[in-house]
Write a structure and sequence with these properties.
single chain, about 350 residues, alpha/beta, Rossmann fold, 3 domains, 4-stranded parallel sheet, 18 helices, 12 strands, about 15% strand, binds iron/sulfur cluster
């Protein structure tokens, strides 16, 4: 790990490192639905009807992340961000949970609900951010910093969570960091942009792992430009993983962005903002899947993506044919080995106890 400590809340451009990104060009689940005669004969209407039937027959619930494609969001029992979906999974009165999201999310549900069967329609739906850190790298970071407290963003594999003291989501990261006893060194991973945001908001100095989500890191200050000057009734909503957040916070401090119209929010926070705020336009800096929900819930408002190409190919691996197959065949089950789950649960439980904003 490079020792690149960054001043609290400074306007820095840490640049975009090139991390190996898991490929999902054509997954095993893609092949399986393509070669499945029943599924190949079904259109979207039949698939949705079949999913509804199987969900009832099998006492299943379908959880969908805010970045899922519209047809999946529309039929899900619950749509939300990582923390909300974890809470729903833990509270669910169901035998089967079909998790329409990426793999680390289904793992978190499996850790929280060991008595339930947790399925993911495409087990290769990974995450470029989670792929930037391994459990061995966390162990090594700890060896270098034996007094450090490891705070992991929930976008990590179960093995990484098992090496962590605390988990957090973007909606409660600042409060989780504040809950760490004063004076303790904090090792924050894996998202550097979220880490910079948390450092600034909490006032705590963090050691940062320099990982990033390729989708959010790609949202840069140039994408904002002078949008807020052009549209005086518009609000700017930014996810803290975005590559422009540090500069925007600096610009806010300098008065170059209006403080009353600029918001750094989790996806759950953006949904709430959409409902509660009367601005006519919101510029949305996150994965474009969220726009479906924002527009559906707020038909009188206009939501404009900061980047049309902010699309997570991992989230989009979940499709109606794969969801149908997942329910019909009860595949792919996500199981976290109990020794790892037991350790990861400690960090996740701490995350669940800190209220989300
Ligand atoms: S949007 Fe980024 S952080 Fe979220 S699942 Fe996709 S790659 Fe991972």
């Amino acid at each position: 790990m490079d020792d690149e400590r960054l001043p609290i809340g400074s306007a820095v451009d840490v640049g975009v490192r090139v991390w190996p990104r898991p490929s999902v060009d054509h997954t095993a689940a893609d092949s399986q639905v393509e070669s499945d005669d029943e599924i190949a004969s079904m259109g979207d209407t039949e698939l949705v009807e079949g999913i509804e039937r199987l969900r009832a027959e099998k006492q299943a619930i379908i959880l969908a992340h805010n970045y899922q494609i519209p047809p999946i969001q529309d039929l899900a029992d619950f749509v939300g961000d990582s923390l909300q979906l974890s809470q729903q999974a833990a509270a669910a009165d169901a035998r089967l949970i079909v998790f329409c999201g990426v793999h680390f999310m289904a793992e978190t549900a499996a850790i929280l609900c060991p008595e339930k069967k947790v399925l993911i329609p495409d087990v290769e739906a990974g995450c470029s951010l989670a792929a930037t850190v391994t459990a061995e790298q966390v162990r090594e970071w700890r060896r270098e910093n034996p007094d450090g407290v490891v705070v992991s963003y929930v976008n990590t594999d179960a093995e990484v969570k098992a090496e962590s003291d605390y988990c957090c989501t973007s909606s409660n990261a600042v409060d989780v960091v504040r809950s760490v006893p004063e004076g303790r060194e904090i090792l924050f991973l894996p998202d550097m942009f979220l880490g910079l945001f948390v450092e600034r908001q909490s006032g705590r100095r963090l050691q940062l792992w320099l990982g990033e989500c390729h989708v959010h890191a790609g949202i840069r200050p140039d994408d904002i430009g002078d949008l807020l000057d052009e549209h005086r009734d518009a609000h700017l909503l930014l996810h803290p993983e975005c590559g422009c957040v540090s500069q925007c916070l600096y610009a806010l401090g300098e008065g170059d962005l209006p403080a009353d119209r600029t918001f750094v929010l989790s996806t759950g926070g953006m949904v709430r903002h959409g409902r509660e705020c009367s601005a006519g336009h919101d510029y949305v800096g996150t994965e474009t899947g969220l726009l479906h929900r924002l527009r559906t819930e707020n038909p009188d408002k206009e939501f404009i993506p900061l980047r049309e190409d902010a699309i997570c190919e991992y989230m989009k691996k979940i499709t109606l044919p794969k969801l149908y197959r997942s329910l019909r065949d009860e595949v792919e089950q996500v199981v976290v080995p109990e020794p790892i789950a037991t350790r990861a649960r400690v960090a996740i439980d701490r995350m669940m106890k800190v209220p989300a904003l």
